Amino acid sequence: MAKIVVDWKTITSFVTDAFEKIGVPRHEAEICADVLLESDKRGIESHGVNRFKPIYIDRINIGIQNPVTNYEIIKETPTTAVIDGHDGMGQVIGYKSMKMAIEKAKKYGMGMVAVRNSCHYGIAGYYATMATKEGMIGITGTNARPSIAPTFGVENMLGTNPLTIGLPTDEEFPFVIDCATSITQRGKLEYYSRIGKKTPEGMVIGRDGQAKTDTDQILVELNTGKAALAPLGGIGEELAGYKGYGYATVVEILSAALQQGNYLRMLTGIQNGKKVPYHLGHFIIAIDTNAFMGVDEVK
User: Rounded CA gap, 224 and 85, in Å?
Assistant: First the structure.
């Protein structure tokens, strides 16, 4: 399929209006659209409007994601909070959580928010950048439906679980590392499918332990457990795939343990053969550089 090029104003209006039409309140629809379009502006086509319909619109239509976000504070201290997103819009939950973490960091130097019962929140780097705009360090991660096979394993157990960090700099832009703990992500494979591209060898492993390259088949088999993504580093031990597996495990724990949330195979989105909410978890951290030696020194 050939790429369709649309100007930013048109696509932003379309995505915002479509979110509002399906039931997302206007101000929250603007947040959702901004997160999605920021992904495309950064060249991360796997998490932009490529996922607008299948990950958000379709899930709202079948009733496993709520267009109106009930953002509930379960527990709060001066520096921390636990949030229940009640399966609302992940972008809204992520945005509000980073705003809360930033406000706590302004008062006490650091702020951390743990989230349960959320949905896909788009590119994690969006929230880290919210912190860098305030002269702070932003850190966030999220678990996801099982995709990664542990080192020496072939069954998908862990999500792609990004570990994302943003730091302010003296350039016109911050330093942000925003990447999955797998070699690739489902969103990239969905993009490959749309443009008819084979998956490069070494990214995906089958139940027989061999690499798989048929993108359309891979997307089906990721859902049936017959294929899994390789962790960052690669299949097996020789390319140090255990490092990616280890980082993915850390993100899984931080995205679930602090908020008593779901994890691993609990996040398949399937129960008794029926689609159900994913109940994802996130962690979001803001660190005020002025609580240390100051933002200018950091930059």
Answer: 28
How far apart CA 148 and CA 122 sit, in angstroms, is 19
- Per residue in 29-82, pLDDT (tens digit) is 999 999 999 999 999 988 999 899 999 999 999 999 999 999 999 999 999 999
Give percent of the chain above pLDDT 70: 99
Taking residues 180-189, report their average pLDDT: 91
Q: How many residues does the chain have?
A: 299
What gap in Å lies between CA 106 and CA 26, rounded to an integer? 29
Mean pLDDT of 123-134: 98
Hey, which residues does 118 pair with through a beta bridge?
280
Q: Residue 186 has which token pair?
A: 């489902």
CATH entry 3.30.1370.60 includes domain 70-298: yes
φ, ψ at 292 (rounded to 5°): -115, -115
CB atoms within 10 A of CB 106: 15
- The DSSP secondary structure of the chain, one letter per residue, reads -------HHHHHHHHHHHHHHTT--HHHHHHHHHHHHHHHHTT-GGGSGGGIIIIIIHHHHTTSS-SS---EEEEE-SSEEEEE-TT--HHHHHHHHHHHHHHHHHHHSEEEEEEEEE---S-THHHHHHHHTTTEEEEEEE--SS-BPPTT--S--B----EEEEE--SSSS-EEEEE-SBSS-HHHHHHHHHHTPPPPTTSEEETTS-B---HHHHHHHHHHTSEEEPBTT-SSTTTTHHHHHHHHHHHHHHTTGGGT---GGGGSSEETTEE----EEEEEEEEEGGGTT-HHHH-
The predicted model scores a pTM of 0.94
